[in-house]
Structures are given as structure tokens and as C-alpha cells.
Amino acid sequence: MLAQQRQSAILDLIRQRGGVRVSHLVSRFGVSDMTIRRDLEVLAERGLVDKVHGGATLAGPGSAEEPGFAAKSIRQQAEKRCIAERAATMVEPGMAIALSAGTTTAALATLLSDVRGLTVVTNSIPVADALYQNPRADQTVVLTGGIRTPSDALTGPVAEAAISSLNVDLLFLGVHGLSPRTGFTTPNLLEAGVNRCLIGAARRLVVLADHTKWETIGIATIAPLAAADVLITDVGLPAEARTAIGEQVGELVVVEAG
After folding, report:
1. 158 three-class SS
2. SS3 state of residue 116
3. Over the range 100-126, which residues count as b (16 or more CB within 10 Å of their CB) and which as e?
4. Which pTM does this prediction carry?
5. Cα distances (angstroms) measured from residue 82 to each of 76, 77, 208, 257
6. Which of 85, 164, 84 is nearest to 123 (CA)?
7. How many CB atoms lie within 10 A of CB 28?
8. What is the pLDDT of residues 82-104, one digit of tens each?
């Protein structure tokens, strides 16, 4: 097989799976590790794939590109639901919690209607809407003001000032991406500022991130991986990613969708 044919086949595999490991490609094509790495380098130089430790993934959008809430809400629905269900077990009656913007945190909000005496602080319009749709007389929902982003988050100095005056037991944080080098990231600079304020207001940080967030990098770092007391993800997360994350976060929880 010619190099160009092999590279085309590798690209097709990455498009199908979202990512591949070098070791798998070596076995599949019967060539050396160095040959596969050269192939991936060629594809990366053409902007078709992103090289990651031990393999490559399909080239993602720019680090400042932010999908809308509706577009994100249809991705990895089963995984997000199971992550949200696990997170809900951490919420106890009488707690004050914060939920950042995000589709997984919005899924969590739909599971909290039975928690007595709960106070929820959020900068997310969908999170607030989910709680308002199933109201309880003994629950309080605090929605910050601010500038609305494509992901329906409220950001800017108004949101930051509101959050900075509060204290909560738990923060459930949704993120755009995570990696050992860049930590937890977002494509929106204003949202990064609000998320840092949320972290500062919380006694414990629980990050909710499905496996597709691994090695996705937004323009702004919210916090290093070590800032998370708990990270809840799904079984799609590769073994090497679990090792890298487990070395930094307080506790890594892996759930199985379905």
C-alpha cells in the first residue's frame, strides 16, 4: 500500500471512530511505529487530525469556537444522563449548590426536584428553566444576571459580582474540554471568568465531563485538573486518559451509559 493510500485509510478510520491509537494502526497496516507516526504527522500538517499522546483524533473546531446549547444537547445524551444521575447522588437535603452552564449540568438539574430544602445558584438559563418547570416550595433558585453567551450562560461583571458574594457546598461544573497540559477549558473568555468565581465560592468542585471532552482544548483555562475534588465521566474515556486524570484529580468516577 502506498503512503498516500494508507494515510487516506487512516483518516477514514479516525473519522469513523473519532480517534485511533498508534499501536492499533501499526497492527492494522503491518508497518512500523515510526511509519504510522510519519503518516499522522502528514495528516496533522494538513489540518485533518490532531496528534495526541499515543495516537490521533479528528481535528476539532478552533479553540474559540463555541457551539450553541441546542447543538451540544444532542451529543452523547446517554453518557450525559448517566453522569448526571451519578452526580445527583451527591446532593443532600438542605445543601446550597451551584451548577455552571452546560448540557450535562442541565441534565442534572432535571433530577433535583425531589431534594428538600435545596438552594441552587446558577448562571445557566436552561438549568434555571429545568428547576422552574418542577418547582418545590422549599427550594430556592438563584439565577445570576449577566451577558448571555451561545451556550445560554450568563457572564460578565454582573454575574461575577453576584457569585462572588455567595458560598455553596458543591459546584457541579461542566467544561468544554480537559487535558493534563491545559486543565479544564472553555472557548468563551467571559464564561471562564464566571466559572472561576463559581469555583471560588464552592467548598468542593465536581466536574462533569463525558469522554469526548478529553484532549479538547478551549481558548481559556478555567482551572488545572488538580482543582477538581471529583471528576465524573463515562467508560468511553481511554485507559491512558484515566491514568493521567487519576493522577491529578481527587477522585475519578467512571459510569457506564445505559
Report:
1. helix
2. coil
3. bbbbbbbbbbbbbeebeebbbbbbbbb
4. 0.74
5. 10, 9, 10, 6
6. 164
7. 14
8. 999 999 999 999 999 999 999 99
